[in-house]
Amino acid sequence: MICREVTEFLMDYETRSLAPAVHQEFELHLSRCSNCRTFIVQYQETVKAGQRACAEQDADAITEIPDDLIRAIMHAIRAARQT
Amino acid sequence: MAERAPLDSAADERELARGLRDGSAEGFERLVRTYGGRLLAVTRRILRDEEDARDAVQDAFISAFRARKQFQADARVSTWLHRIAVNAALMKLRSRRRKTEVPMDDLQPAFRDDGHHADRFVSWAEPADVALGRQETADFVREAIAELPDSYRLVLLMRDIEGRNTEETATELGITPNAVKIRLHRARLALRRLIAPRMQEIAS
After folding, report:
1. Which fold has domain B10-95?
2. Where are the domains of chain B?
3. CA-CA distance, B100 to B148, in Å (whole number)?
4. C-alpha B42: how far from its chain's center?
């Protein structure tokens, strides 16, 4: 297996969806290629970075719905009821 | 500040579903108070504009009201509303002028002819959890996500950020599960490329 294939199969490797023989080849490549090992750690860190960045945004923002928006929605619903 | 309604017990869910189907003003308002904040977070992430996000939530509740009789008794109100809100946000997204999108191919890893990586990767200075403790890094990562073309960004948001599974994401976006998998992988690879310089320089 070469680096290009490792990159291609990475997501399936992480979800353990590769055929056993391919999984084994994948791990064999990793054991020999420090560049791919670093790359995979960065890939995993990227997923975490996105999750953390967006979780902080949600925590910062008001996750409750503002009262004026509730009023606007209910006004629109009443109008929709009459049409 | 809006009142936060109690949520998530099976009895609450049934009560909310009843309010939805009845279409009573009280029942519907409870629904808006209970799920409105979460839906606003969803439309904000997709649209990245407060006014558009609010409009999309309002459109979603009006659509839900009009379609309330189609709500299946055995479905989850939260899932049903989420789908409607995503649709409302997507409609709004499509109505906007298209932004210039970065070519995804340019953000994928480069390989030499022999299949080896063209780049030599250097470990990032700190794990993402530590680095993201800094506000400016979190802002940078969100900006990088925003740079992704919408068709990739939406898949990344739903799968990695909201934790929806492949099938749910496929249904909500109207694409195949296989397309979800391919786009998610390419989106992660592109995001890695976009944030790598920043993650490497953090400690220096």
Report:
1. Rna Polymerase Sigma Factor; Chain: A (1.10.1740)
2. 10-95, 104-201
3. 10
4. 6
d(CA B204, CA B125): 8
| ipTM for this prediction | 0.86
Nearest C-alpha neighbor of B115 from the set A35, A82, A68, A45: A35
Sort out which chain B residues have CB atoms less than 8 A from A65's CB and list them. Answer: 2, 32-33, 36-37, 39-40, 57
pTM for this entry: 0.83
Cα angle value A11/B134/A34 (rounded, 5°): 40
What percentage of chain A reaches a pLDDT higher than 90? 73
Q: Rounded to an integer, what distance in angstroms lies between the CA atom of residue B132 and that of residue A53?
A: 7
Q: Answer yes or no: do B58 and A73 touch at CB < 8 A.
A: yes
Interface check for B14 against chain A (CB to CB < 8 A): the answer is no
Alpha-carbon Rg of chain A, whole angstroms? 24
> For B69-85, what is the mean pLDDT?
88
Q: Which CATH architecture has domain B104-201?
A: Orthogonal Bundle (1.10)
DSSP 8-state assignment for residue B125: S
Q: B39-57, pLDDT tens digit by residue?
A: 999 999 999 899 999 999 9
Task: Using DSSP, state whether B176 is helix, strand or coil.
Answer: coil
Domain residue spans in chain A?
3-82
Find tokens 């960004």 and name the residue: B153
Tokens matching residue B157 = 């948001």
**Confidence band (pLDDT; 50, 70, 90) for A48?**
very high
More confident residue, B129 or B174: B174
Average pLDDT over residues A20-40: 96
Task: Give A-chain residues touching B189 at CB under 8 angstroms.
Answer: 7, 43
